[in-house]
Specification:
Blueprint (H helix, E strand, L loop, with lengths): L1 H35 L5 E9 L6 E9 L2 E5 L3 E5 L4 E5 L4 E5 L3 H7 L4 H4 L4 E8 L2 E8 L8 E7 L4 E8 L2 E12 L18 E4 L2
Parallel strand pairs: 6-12
Antiparallel strand pairs: 1-2, 1-11, 2-3, 3-4, 4-5, 5-6, 7-8, 8-9, 9-10, 10-11
């Protein structure tokens, strides 16, 4: 009986610790979301590696404002106005028009996690040197993004996001983050800027 009581107390203490970590993780993510989700906009440089299809490593620039984003790499440019996504591939001179799912948005927008954590994820946290390492685990096994690790600095700006989709991990390293005033116009594709590009509507 004594052993059962001790085990029960240990389980209770563990659950209380997990709950406390989840609370701290949410508080940190709330503060990070406020910084990253600056109402006028924000931008950063990034390096992305891994993922399905072995994409290798590439680097680029991303600008965000609310749920809109613009991303540019040597291979492609992506515009997302909150509903429609345009992807221009330099090698083929084609623009694909799509309505992306959650996983696709997260792989292209390293700040997608600032809305994901608010529903459907179990949160955990631990210290990683001078930063916080936040763990997000999907509660629904059918969710396209099952697991994320987000490294966040003391100033509440993220420096790395690791995303698991199926068995594949994508790692996004973030640098040179800054808030700035961004025009809504930069998040929509303008055909006149690419007059010779072929438009492929996949919606």
């Amino acid at each position: 009986m004594r052993k059962i009581i001790i085990i029960s107390l240990m389980v209770l203490a563990s659950l209380q610790g997990m709950a406390q970590h989840a609370k701290e993780a949410k508080e940190i993510l709330d503060k990070t979301a406020a910084v990253v989700g600056h109402h006028e906009g924000a931008s950063a440089s990034f390096t992305i590696s891994g993922g399905s299809g072995s994409i290798g490593t590439t680097h680029g620039y991303v600008a965000i404002k609310g749920n809109k984003f613009y991303a540019r790499t040597p291979q492609a440019t992506v515009w997302f106005n909150g509903k429609t996504q345009w992807t221009y591939m330099k090698s083929t001179n084609e623009v694909s028009v799509t309505t992306p799912n959650e996983a696709k948005l997260a792989q292209l927008n390293p700040y997608k996690f600032i809305t994901l954590y608010k529903s459907g994820y179990t949160l955990g946290m631990k210290r990683a040197g001078n930063a916080y390492l936040i763990h997000m685990q999907a509660q629904n096994k059918q969710r396209s993004l099952q697991e994320l690790f987000v490294t966040i600095g003391k100033d509440h700006t993220p420096s790395k996001v690791k995303i698991r989709q199926g068995q594949n991990w994508t790692t996004i390293s973030i640098s040179h983050f800054k808030t700035e005033r961004l025009s809504d116009a930069i998040f929509s594709f303008r055909a006149k800027d690419f007059p010779k590009a072929e438009i492929v509507d996949l919606r």
